[in-house]
Amino acid sequence: MRGKLVNNVRGLMAHAGFAVSEVFRHRPISFDFLARRDDELYILKVLTNIDSLSEEVAREMQLLARFLDGHTLLVGTKASNAPLEAGAVYLRHGIPILSFEGLRDYLIHGAPPMAFAAPGGFCVKIDGDKLHHIRVEENLSLGQLADVAGVSRRAISMYEDGMSATVEAALRLEEFLQEGLIQPLNPFERSQPAEEVGTIDIREIEDPFTRSIFERLSSMGFGIVPTGRSPFHGIGLVKPEDYDPSNPSDALLLTASSKEKAIRKREGLLGSVSTISERTSLFIVREAKQGPRGTAFVRKRELDRLDTAEGLVELAQEKGEEDE
Question: Tens digits of per-residue pLDDT, 154-166?
């Protein structure tokens, strides 16, 4: 069922005008595929039960969003045994979640979600300025609106200041005032801010070859962001102190492996991910080989002759162009 849902979501994104990468099927995985439309990059994960999203997977999705200048999105079918509502946004470990129907409504029909799941039920965003203006103009007290909505006077005051309301309270206010107050939601505004996501230490990398390569790159001036569940092993920041995620030339997708089988499993997908993310992908290997379009293969002895991050970037770009 999950595989079918992945294909359906990927097809939906393509129908909505997104370029989509190949599906990442090798475990462990942090995302299923990438999708891009103009300047919008989405890092997508698909699960039947959204409660199965682990904190580790969510963390890596947020890490990729931070350094690739994208948005995380999980598409699911149910939470526990209850189906997801099409018009609602859910949240797990800081990742925004939509149902397939909700995503279709948002992308194809231009109908954004109107509610978000919260402990105890669904809530909505109220236009607080409009509520305050109507209350003052109609000479209504906080107490009168509180009685209508079934909440406290303080709650009405907080609605006017921007606090969310339960669906029931908002609908009572709209019916009483004969005005629309509920505002549509941006599914991504409730995601965890990218700057709050930490990174993995190079010393935590288990494979000795990959760890040694990343330590070498770090000594050359690269900022190294290792990954554990992606088709690449890390992201190399060319200017770590002045890194601009919106500038594709400031980052490389790095894969370091001495195992031929592991290289063959990743190379086609990495080329696809590189194209969609608009980042140069770089394989560092023991021996030279030719990879997919836009993917550079650099031998370890070539790396050992370089002293600066800029030198490796130039070499990667040259080799990537040779393979196109």
Answer: 999 999 999 999 9
The pTM of the full predicted model, rounded to 2 decimals, is 0.88
β-strand pairing of 95-99 with 71-79: parallel
Domains of the chain, residue spans: 2-114, 122-183, 199-322
The topology under which CATH files domain 2-114 is: Restriction Endonuclease (3.40.91)
* Domain made up of 199-322: CATH architecture: 3-Layer(aba) Sandwich (3.40)
Give the Cα separation of 235 and 248 in Å (integer).
12
- Tokens 């891009």 locate to 36
Residues contacting residue 98 through CB under 8 Å, at least 6 positions apart: 73, 74, 75, 76, 84, 89, 90, 106, 113, 187
pLDDT digits over 206-262, tens only? 889 999 999 999 998 899 999 988 989 999 998 888 888 888 888 889 988 877 777
**Cα 182 from chain centroid?**
26
CATH number of 122-183: 1.10.260.40
**Cβ neighbours, 10 Å, residue 88:** 22
